[in-house]
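Researcher: Please predict.
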Amino acid sequence: MPLQTFGPLDGALLVDKPAGPTSHDVVEAVRRQFHLQKAGHCGTLDPNATGLLVLVLGRATKLSEKLMSTDKVYEGTIKFGETTTSYDADGELVGSLPVPPLTVAQINEEARAFVGDLLQTPPMVSAAKVGGVPLYKLARKGVEVERKPRLVHIYSFACSQYTEPLATFRVACTKGTYVRSLAHELGQKLGCGAHLAALRRTVAGKLSLADALPLDQVLALPVAELEKRVIPFLKLTAST
């Protein structure tokens, strides 16, 4: 396309997603506020997850697949001793065990086993689809179905701080990685169970949370200021 076909709102907008709304809710709020015809996002964050949500606006929506395929970095908290149906704090408690004495070094020794190529089975409470139906809809009906494992790659997975029963961690991984599954399986390895208590995405490809604005601030911007926050289409294609 010729350069002049791109407007100031054809590009990517970096939003610091708050806990609560779905990723789709964030897209719809921005779309309605600024009367955008086309808007989407690149990589779903669970409702209670926070951090970098990359929105694509206007003609940049065609880049969503390309931007979605980039590697990600997350920071968060794992709670040991409790397992849930969804592997995170949103699920129902299904198991509780005493937490053994643990150190950061002991946790990291087990976490290192996840680094490298990893086959992950999507949790039943997830947006992955089987036969066109999201798994979480089947889970709500008490139905459990066979899920195909997916190959992901974990570049690093390490705990930086531990105060029983909470461990602070950072993970760098490929797209499609279920971080809550890592938390769940780490708890299994340590013999006490665990779930993901909090999650924040900090990096997606070459895009950083440091350049994002909280959603409420985005929605309060005048259009002229919003345009300054949008990463232009041509800059996106050059950097991806």
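Model: The longest helix spans residues 23-33.
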